[in-house]
Amino acid sequence: MLAALAADIRQQARALGFSACGIARADVTPDAAERLRRWLAAGRHGGMDYMAKHAALRTDPSALLPGVLSVISVRLPYWPQASSEPEQHDDAIAEVSRYARGRDYHKTVRQRLQKLAEHIQAHVRTRLGNDDFFIFRAFSDSAPVMETEFAQRAGIGWRGKHTLTLSRQGSWHFLGELFTNLPLPADASAEAHCGNCRRCLDTCPTGAIVAPYEVDARRCISYLTIELDGAIPEELRPLIGQRIYGCDDCQTCCPWNRFAQAGDPDFAVRNHLDHSPLTALFAWPADEFERRLAGSPIRRIGHERWLRNIAVALGNAAPTDAHRLALQSRRDDPSALVREHVAWALNRYDRPITTV
C-alpha cells in the first residue's frame, strides 16, 4: 500500500505543476548537522540571528512536527517565461534576481503542497477509513528546514558548490516540503554532478563562495541587498553593480542551467522588473512601493532598504544628469540610512557629467 501511495504522490505532484517529487526519511544526517554548526560558529550567517536561534529545529524535524517519519520534497521551476534580458549590460537598468520578478513563491508552493496533502488525506481515508491517521505540515522557505539536505536525500537534486540545489535541469527552481507521519518508502539520494567545475566560485562578484559548498553570507550580494537591515559595507558597495535585489551570477554561469525548464506561469514578470531604469524605481514613493509590490517577495525588505539598494546601484552607474538628479532628489530623505547611501553615491560622481 505504501509503495503505491508513494507512486501516487509523485504522480499527483506532477499534476499540480511540480517538476519533481521525491521522498526522504525525516532525519538529518550527522554530517549535515555538523556542517551547519561549523558555518554558524564561523559567523558566516552574518546578521541572520534566526539561523543560530533555530539551529536545533533545523537538525530535529520532529520538533516541527512530532511523529514525523517522512519528508516529501518537491521542486517548482521559476524561470520567468516572459523575461526580457538585456542583450548586453546596461548600467542604467536595475538588476532584480529572477526569482523575485513575479509572485511571492511562498504562497504558491505552500498552497500546492496543501492540495497535495488533501489528495493524500483522501487516499488514506479511502484505504483506512481514518481521517486522523494522517498528519502533515507544509513548508516553503517558511520554517527552519534543511531544504537542500532533504532535496538531495529525496533524489530531486544535489547540493551545488554554490550551496544551492542543482538538478540536471539547473537551479532555477523553488523547493517545498511536506512533513508527514506516514512511513513512506524513501527514494535513493541524488548524486552530485558538479565534477571539477568551479565557475560559480570564480564568478561570484564579492568572493562570497569562499570554498566549494561554503558561502560567507556577509559577502553575498543577496544577503547584502535582502537580509541586511543596516548600512551596506562601503568596501562591498562598488562590487554590487546594479543589483538592487539579490544576485544570480552563480546561477547564470552554471552549465546545468542550459537545460532549464520554462518557469511556472505564477512567476511571470510583474512591474517590468526585468528591464526597469534605476531612476524610475528610485522615484517610487512608499505607497507606490507597497502597491506595486503587493504579493511580491521584494515587499518584505521595505521601502527604506529598497531606496538604499538603488542608491548604491546609481552610485555604480554612469554619472549622467538623470542619475545625479535622481540621487539629489533624495538627499534630504527622512531616513538616515538612505541619506548616507545617497551621499556615498554622489561622492562617486567625480567624473564630468555625460548626456543622458
UniProtKB/TrEMBL annotation:
<feature type="binding site">
    <location>
        <position position="141"/>
    </location>
    <ligand>
        <name>cob(II)alamin</name>
    </ligand>
</feature>
<keyword id="KW-0819">tRNA processing</keyword>
<keyword id="KW-0846">Cobalamin</keyword>
<feature type="binding site">
    <location>
        <position position="200"/>
    </location>
    <ligand>
        <name>[4Fe-4S] cluster 1</name>
    </ligand>
</feature>
<keyword id="KW-0408">Iron</keyword>
<protein>
    <recommendedName>
        <fullName>Epoxyqueuosine reductase</fullName>
        <ecNumber>1.17.99.6</ecNumber>
    </recommendedName>
</protein>
<dbReference type="GO" id="GO:0005737">
    <property type="term" value="C:cytoplasm"/>
</dbReference>
<feature type="binding site">
    <location>
        <position position="220"/>
    </location>
    <ligand>
        <name>[4Fe-4S] cluster 2</name>
    </ligand>
</feature>
<dbReference type="GO" id="GO:0031419">
    <property type="term" value="F:cobalamin binding"/>
</dbReference>
<dbReference type="GO" id="GO:0052693">
    <property type="term" value="F:epoxyqueuosine reductase activity"/>
</dbReference>
<dbReference type="InterPro" id="IPR004453">
    <property type="entry name" value="QueG"/>
</dbReference>
<comment type="pathway">
    <text>tRNA modification; tRNA-queuosine biosynthesis.</text>
</comment>
<feature type="binding site">
    <location>
        <begin position="247"/>
        <end position="248"/>
    </location>
    <ligand>
        <name>cob(II)alamin</name>
    </ligand>
</feature>
<feature type="binding site">
    <location>
        <position position="194"/>
    </location>
    <ligand>
        <name>[4Fe-4S] cluster 1</name>
    </ligand>
</feature>
<comment type="function">
    <text>Catalyzes the conversion of epoxyqueuosine (oQ) to queuosine (Q), which is a hypermodified base found in the wobble positions of tRNA(Asp), tRNA(Asn), tRNA(His) and tRNA(Tyr).</text>
</comment>
<keyword id="KW-0004">4Fe-4S</keyword>
<feature type="binding site">
    <location>
        <position position="250"/>
    </location>
    <ligand>
        <name>[4Fe-4S] cluster 2</name>
    </ligand>
</feature>
<dbReference type="GO" id="GO:0046872">
    <property type="term" value="F:metal ion binding"/>
</dbReference>
<feature type="binding site">
    <location>
        <position position="222"/>
    </location>
    <ligand>
        <name>cob(II)alamin</name>
    </ligand>
</feature>
<dbReference type="InterPro" id="IPR017896">
    <property type="entry name" value="4Fe4S_Fe-S-bd"/>
</dbReference>
<keyword id="KW-0671">Queuosine biosynthesis</keyword>
<dbReference type="Pfam" id="PF13484">
    <property type="entry name" value="Fer4_16"/>
</dbReference>
<keyword id="KW-0411">Iron-sulfur</keyword>
<feature type="binding site">
    <location>
        <position position="197"/>
    </location>
    <ligand>
        <name>[4Fe-4S] cluster 1</name>
    </ligand>
</feature>
<keyword id="KW-0170">Cobalt</keyword>
<feature type="binding site">
    <location>
        <position position="204"/>
    </location>
    <ligand>
        <name>[4Fe-4S] cluster 2</name>
    </ligand>
</feature>
<dbReference type="GO" id="GO:0051539">
    <property type="term" value="F:4 iron, 4 sulfur cluster binding"/>
</dbReference>
<feature type="binding site">
    <location>
        <position position="247"/>
    </location>
    <ligand>
        <name>[4Fe-4S] cluster 2</name>
    </ligand>
</feature>
<keyword id="KW-0479">Metal-binding</keyword>
<dbReference type="InterPro" id="IPR013542">
    <property type="entry name" value="QueG_DUF1730"/>
</dbReference>
<feature type="active site" description="Proton donor">
    <location>
        <position position="141"/>
    </location>
</feature>
<comment type="similarity">
    <text>Belongs to the QueG family.</text>
</comment>
<dbReference type="GO" id="GO:0008616">
    <property type="term" value="P:tRNA queuosine(34) biosynthetic process"/>
</dbReference>
<feature type="domain" description="4Fe-4S ferredoxin-type">
    <location>
        <begin position="184"/>
        <end position="214"/>
    </location>
</feature>
<dbReference type="InterPro" id="IPR017900">
    <property type="entry name" value="4Fe4S_Fe_S_CS"/>
</dbReference>
<feature type="binding site">
    <location>
        <position position="175"/>
    </location>
    <ligand>
        <name>cob(II)alamin</name>
    </ligand>
</feature>
<dbReference type="Pfam" id="PF08331">
    <property type="entry name" value="QueG_DUF1730"/>
</dbReference>
<keyword id="KW-0963">Cytoplasm</keyword>
<feature type="binding site">
    <location>
        <position position="58"/>
    </location>
    <ligand>
        <name>cob(II)alamin</name>
    </ligand>
</feature>
<keyword id="KW-0560">Oxidoreductase</keyword>
<comment type="subunit">
    <text>Monomer.</text>
</comment>
<feature type="binding site">
    <location>
        <position position="254"/>
    </location>
    <ligand>
        <name>[4Fe-4S] cluster 1</name>
    </ligand>
</feature>
